[in-house]
Structures are given as structure tokens and as C-alpha cells.
Amino acid sequence: MKRPTGVAAVGYGATPYYRRGQSPHAERKLLLMAIDEAATMAGIDAAEIDGFVSYGADLEDGPRLTGPLGTKELRWSSLVWGGGGGGSSAAIAQAEAAILSGQAETVVVYRATAESTSGRLSSAVIQGVFGIQYRAHGIDSPAQALGLRTQRILANGVPPSALRAIARASYFHAGNTPHAVGRDVDLTDELYEGSRRIVDPIRLYDSSRENDAAAAIIFTSAERAADLTEKPIHLLASAYGAQGPRWGELDENHEPYTASSQASAARRMWDRTGLGPDDVDAVQLYVNFTGPPVSALVDLGFCTVEDAGEVLTYENLVAPTGALPINTSGGDLAEGFLHGMGNAVEAVRLLRGESYNPVPDAKVCLVSGGPISELSSVSLFGTEPLG
Amino acid sequence: MANERDEVHPFEGRVDFPYWDGLGRDELLVQRCTGCARWSWPADWRCPRCGSYDLGWEPVEPRGVVYSWVRTHLAFVPAYAELVPYVNVLVELPGADGARLMGLFTGPEEGLEVGSVVTGTFQAPSARTLDLSVLTWSLEVAAA
């Protein structure tokens, strides 16, 4: 068999974002419906999917899905180890590895969360990160751990206006997106500033929700993608990992404390593609809270701590006119929170010309996995393969 | 509750058991490599610098500098619900090469900021602290 030269997304599917605990369907059923939607878009029978990848302690393992999907042959099944939402694009990297190596041919990357199966998302995603060195002192949530880092991001000189701009741009894009949970919120500076405090320095509108939802993207070789669809979205690069040791409680003791974990993955992505921040038309950032994505943008090369206040303005971050449109569906804050999977879906949607917030002539879209995590990840999508 | 990565049964088998055990005797112990003298925190089984498994524990003065802090307004941890809003500090220990400990902040908050000097007080175990002896931290001026 000839090895594939590249990988492309051929279909995506996403269920509505229900309020947590309110999905009318069980978690696995939500996921099956998302996979079916993606398969229909891809023009394949869902039984042809031979690889399954997820992350973040997802409970819907590949083998269990083969029954209802009627899978003809299971060739790949993997879960990204550790990192929670940091693994969102790492799952895409594993799919890429499976396809490029010839291990599998048609791989679905997915995430499903429904409280009736997985419990509270804030607990389900943690994977034992908060050991007793935290819990004995009243710390047991991402909001608290990321509040500590946000405090340092601000102390390092990033102005609060940068965090507010990320929130406002997200809600602006949600306003144009019919399925976005935050579509009716007109997030003004006043509403943002006056919103209740969750964990100082994090306010309500700095925070993502918990939702019941599922989403899936089907990947295959670029060669096969060309036969399946007129709009294959090419995976230009993916990468994941971390620089130096990082895990749970060690994360309180490593330097730089506010590092996103994206720097090494980003370096490999830029090296591999020959592209850089200037070539990116839109960024789908992981925004569980508004502080961490600032660290991600710094480590990805879009701004520095020093100029974050000038680059990260509302005007600059909104489509179609901003120079750096982010989270064009509303993202984790305002489209709905699916542990980052919605961001990858929106990248493919945007490049297929199907986003409710189109970016004129968008050719390259970056997906940034959960930052300030023990591992993080990136994936870079394009309308054309690398030359 | 999510499983914990460092969980060992019985509790005495944990890599950080000497730390908790020391707090019960009003003593702050931090792990330090017997081979190369590198301070090691959080505690672990192998020194990443010299590869030694011979890791000891040294007493450290419970006095440090606030590296970061948060004030929690929601009852994320049921046992702490009645304390909401409460403040946690991440305390850097100059006496242990800057090892950072998490802890609950108590006492007057006026002047609390990154860089504040805090001192620790040994607290007896309670249900709130998972039946573990802990250190709580206060501004040095307030403690004086």
C-alpha cells in the first residue's frame, strides 16, 4: 500500500449544546448522532470508520462504539493520556499518526460529555489532577487553579482589557450563531465588569459553562478525501506535548508558571509547515477562562506579554474586519463548552465557508488546545494542502 | 471524586507521607535529595537531576512569600462551603529553594498581594482537611 501524503477532514457533526444535565439523550447516543452527521457529510457509511480517538478521560471508548456503528474492521482506538482539554488537538494528532502510518484509513476524532453518564464536567475532566495537596486546602476545580495563573498573568503586566476583549469577541460571534448558547447575551464592558465573581480574578463572563453535547470530525488520507468531497479541509500539521516536566501538583512548581504548554508544539508546527502567525486567518482558542488563552497566544507567537493589550482588542478579534479573528462560533465561552472539540469543528466549518462569522478569503485556521495544562496541542487546517 | 495519581494504600506508603506526618508534629518537612542536595517538591520517588532514589526530608521554617493567590466565591469544595469566600495562597519557601506550597489564608487580608510575606500556623486535622494536619498562612505583620 502506498503511504498517504497528507490527511484531511471530510466531515463534521455536532449535536446541540444542552444545558448540563439537560440532554434528552444519553451520552453515547449523542455521540453516535454526531458521528452519523459527520459520516453523512463525508459521504461514507459510518460502518467504514476504522479508527476512534478521543481525549480528556472521555468514557466513550472506540470498541463500545463498534456495535451500534456496525464497524467492519477496528484498526485504531486511542485516548490521549493526561492534560484534559490540553489534549483536544492531540487527538487530531493521533488520528493523523494513524492515517499517515497506514494503521487506519478513516478515523473519527470526538468528544462527548453528558452529565447523566460522565457526572459534572468539572470533575470528569480533571483525571485526578487535584490531589490532596490541593484538596486539603479547599482547591478542587479548574477555576481555582487557573485563577492562580490568571493572577500571575495580570501581575506580569497583561492588562485586564485583553481578557475582556477575548470574552466580548466570543460573545459577539455567538450573537450571529443560531445554535450558540450565548447568542442572546450582548456583552458590553459594563455587563462584563459588573458580572459576579467566581474566583478572583475570574468573573462570570470570563468563564465557560458546562454543557451536554457531542461533536466529531472524520479524517482520512488527502488522496481519499479528494474522491469523497469537493471541500476537503487539509490538516497541515498537528502536534502536542509540553516543554519539560509538568503534571498536576508539579504545575505549581515549574517555570514559567504561566506557560501555556503550547510553545514546543507550536515550534514543531511552524517548523513542519514553514508557516507562521502571519499566515493564519483565524484562531480557534480554547477558552475555559479568559486568562489561559492569552498565554497561548503569546506562546504561539501572536503577541507578547508587553503588547498583549494592543493586539488583544475587541476590534482586532472579531470577524470579518479584525486582523486576528478568534472563536468565530463563540467558542468555549459562548457557543458552548465541549472541552475544546467545538473549536476544531468550527475550524473546519469556517474553512468550508459554513461559519456564521465568515472570515473573508480564509485559507488557514489554527486550533489551539487547552492551554496552561500539563500537555497541550495544536492543529493547523488549510483549504489547500501545503505546496 | 476523581481518583488521585499519588494514591497509595495504606496512606503510609505515599511518597509525600513524611510531609503530612511532619505537620502532625508541628514540623514542616520538604523532600531533598540525599545524593545531590536538590530540593524536590512535590515529593517524588526519583531525583530528576542525579537519578537517586535516596530522597530525604529536611525541616524548613514555615515562612514564605506569596507567589499567587485566589479568592474563591463558589462552594467548589463542599467541606469549605461555609468559609466562602475564602482565600488560598501559593507560598514560595526561600528556605527550600523556592518550593511552593498551597494553603488556606487566614486573618486580615489588607495588603495581601503577590510578594507579601506570610507565616504558617500548624493546624490539627479536621474533616475539612481530609483528616490531615495542615499549615494555614497569614500576613507576617498580622501574625506578629
TrEMBL record, chain A:
CDD domains the record matches: SCP-x_thiolase
Limits of the Thiolase C-terminal domain: 256-369
A GO MF label: acyltransferase activity, transferring groups other than amino-acyl groups
Source domain of life: Bacteria
InterPro entries the record matches: Thiolase-like (IPR016039), Thiolase_C_2 (IPR055140)
Cited PANTHER family: ACETYL-COA C-ACETYLTRANSFERASE (PTHR42870), NON-SPECIFIC LIPID-TRANSFER PROTEIN-LIKE 2 (PTHR42870:SF1)
Name this protein carries in UniProt: Transporter
Protein's organism: Nocardioides mangrovicus
Automatic annotation (TrEMBL), chain B:
Domain of life of the native organism: Bacteria
Domain ChsH2 C-terminal OB-fold: 57-122
GO MF terms, alphabetically ordered: DNA binding
Keywords tagged on the record: DNA-binding
UniProt domain ChsH2 rubredoxin-like zinc ribbon: residue ranges: 20-52
Pfam families (alphabetical): OB_ChsH2_C, zf-ChsH2
PANTHER family assigned to the protein according to its UniProt record, in alphabetical order: BLR3430 PROTEIN
Name of the protein: DNA-binding protein
Species annotation: Nocardioides mangrovicus
